[in-house]
Amino acid sequence: MPFELSINSDLKLVHLVYSGDVVFKERKLARDDVFKACEEHNLSRALVDMSRSNIRMNESDVVRFASEFQKAILPPNYRLACVVSAHNQTENLVQIIISQEGINIRYFSSEAEAMKWLLAVQV
Questions:
Q1: Percent helix, strand and coil across the chain, each rounded to 5?
Q2: CA-CA distance, 16 to 30, in Å (whole number)?
Q3: Helices vs. strands in the chain: H and E counts, helices first
Q4: Partners of 23 in the beta sheet?
Q5: Which of 22, 61, 85, 99 could form a disulfide with 51 if both were Cys (CB 3.0 to 4.6 A apart)?
Q6: How many domains does the chain fold into?
Q7: pLDDT per position in the chain (123 positions), as tens?
Q8: Are 97 and 68 in contact (CB under 8 A)?
Q9: The domain spanning residue 23 has which CATH number?
């Protein structure tokens, strides 16, 4: 799998790191694993590091991937921070669609910035 998921109990967050080429099916599996881990561990924060990966999804995959967030049962205070090496049109579209679903998502260029935002709100 081109991703690794871990739970940081001290910071109360799920941490997902992608590496290498990632296609729609793998990204969907990773997203579902993050949701499952949040539910099982009663967590409302996730840090997704995509900075060392190449996300390979066409526009219809992106719309389908992002639109499926509405099916997830997430806590109302759920926060998703994504670290990317460069902001691109694909991730801009993901952020727009997910935000419209009512999920608090932000993109960052560094893990430090993402962590600062994630930890700014007590859970």
A1: 40, 30, 30
A2: 8
A3: 4, 7
A4: 56
A5: 85
A6: 1
A7: 689 999 999 999 999 999 999 898 998 999 999 999 999 999 999 999 998 888 888 888 888 888 887 777 777 788 999 998 876 667 777 888 888 877 888 989 899 999 999 999 776
A8: no
A9: 3.30.750.24
Instruction: Kindly give, in sequence order, each residue whose CB lies less than 8 Å from that of residue 6, ignoring residues fewer than 6 positions away.
Output: 14, 15
Separation of alpha carbons 66 and 100, rounded Å = 10
Does the predicted model carry a pTM greater than 0.90? Answer: no
d(CA 97, CA 1): 26
* Domain limits for position 88: 3-119
Which DSSP category does 33 fall into?
A: H
Element (H, E) at 79: strand 79-83
